[in-house]
Amino acid sequence: MTFEVHAQGNVHVFDCFQCAIHRMAPICEHCRAQIIGQGVEADGQFYCCAHCARAEGKVGIVDRV
Length: 65
Prior knowledge:
This is Metallothionein. This protein is an alpha+beta fold. The chain has helices spanning about 15-25, 50-55; strands at about 5, 10-15, 40, 45. The strands form 2 sheets. The protein has a two-stranded antiparallel ribbon with strand order 1-2. A two-stranded antiparallel ribbon has the order 3-4. The termini are far apart.
């Protein structure tokens, strides 16, 4: 059984969540981890957590609790 993910005007077809995550999840600009949870965005860049964003010089970023 397959499923479709519609994102940014494109349609992607997958047969498992692992493949969808591998293809679709953004990559942390600091540690290069795939972001499959909340993550944070600063200045158009994605980070897996506030710690990584701060390590890249972003200020005022905090994790949600």
